[in-house]
Specification:
Blueprint (H helix, E strand, L loop, with lengths): L6 H37 L1 H8 L3 H30 L2 H18 L8 H24 L1 H4 L5 H27 L18 H24 L13 H16 L3 H31 L10 H29 L1 H21 L3 H29 L6 H30 L4 H17 L14
Length: 443
Amino acid sequence: MRNKGDARIVRAWTMYDWANSAYSLTITSAVFPMFYVGITGAYGEERFIERFGAPAASLYSYALSAGFLLVALVVPLLSGIADRRGNKLNYLKFFCYLGAASCAGLYFFSVDRLWIGLACVVLACAGFSGSLVFYDAYLPEIAAKRDHDRISARGYTMGYIGSVILLVINLLMVMDPDGDGTTLLGIRDEAGYAARLTFISVALWWVGWAQWPFRVLPDRVGQPPEEKHVIWSGYQELRKVWQQLTHLPRLKRYLGAFFVFNMGIQTVMYLAVSFAKQEVKQPDGSPIADDSLIISVLIIQLLAALGAMAFVRLSRRFGNVRTLLIGCMAWVLACVIAWRVQWTHEFYGLAALVGSIMGGCQALSRSTYAKFLPATKDTASFFSFYDVSFYLGTVLGTLVYGAVYQVTGDLRNTAVALGLFFIVGGGLLLRVPDEERPLPAEG
């Protein structure tokens, strides 16, 4: 492999963020959630529950949880195998193609094919999340520690910009301002045909742009390939990483803090639109309009790109951990505002705040972990711990969100629960030492 910092390899690495972020914006945040509500809502909620045994929103949430759990269970094993064989790129490709094909499969979504459609939701989620494990694991191998913050933020920035470009194209495909059944691009929309085409566009965008990093990123990094006992080596690698973590208190404590505050970040990302749809009103008292929600999503994405770069500057002055602590404090403020927000214009302000801190916290979280890693060739196995924390946190965060709403009957109380995640996460960050030091000897 070329020396760390090779501009061509770094540029190709960031382009995978450009490629796969179309999924996170169009499929998870904007078009598909509204499409899903429209299709299932037209069927009738009572009729839907009678047929499938649960509300449509709950089944969608469970599908996402299943996707994250699948990744959390499978990817650590694959990461150990990838480190053993030194073939991260093959696994990156596999999950990319799995996710893109599943996005394309959503074109055929209908109530009559609900379980097949939800299976595509699960596999798309798994493909997106699984590919990030191997994508993230390249960071410490293509960049020196001093450049981790900058390059990680650059990747997130490319992802935000690329996903917004495709979302704008997709909005032209689905928006029908005249209400005559024809979208802005002249597509005659019948049975959600225009929205279905956006799912195809995500698949093509994802796979197409991914060919750039697939051609440039090194095929094999680390140890020479091994042919014997490869599956068992994955478990052995995970055990070895865990044993190393017990002697790396800074890394271990950081992972604990990350697990908690990331629960809040990911829950906000996946359920902010749902929260706004129920709690935010227009001046006439009606629920917030879909186009207003899309505007807020665009605000978050665009400011997230700027926020990622701003957090890099802050980290140079205050250090990574203290900058993340500042981010947690800002998240607490956002939760307080969410608890009180009522009107569309107020929600735009909240979206601006969330966007400003979301990109920075995500980018800095990844680069901080990369900085704290010991000198090792087993980067995929170490990053599998990071990503398992990421995905399990998402599952637990969304479960707490649903449980608080179910128990209290007031969706605004979920903002209080999320605020507690950031308070506890910030407190755990205070326990992260400035320098790595070994645990004191026992006995």
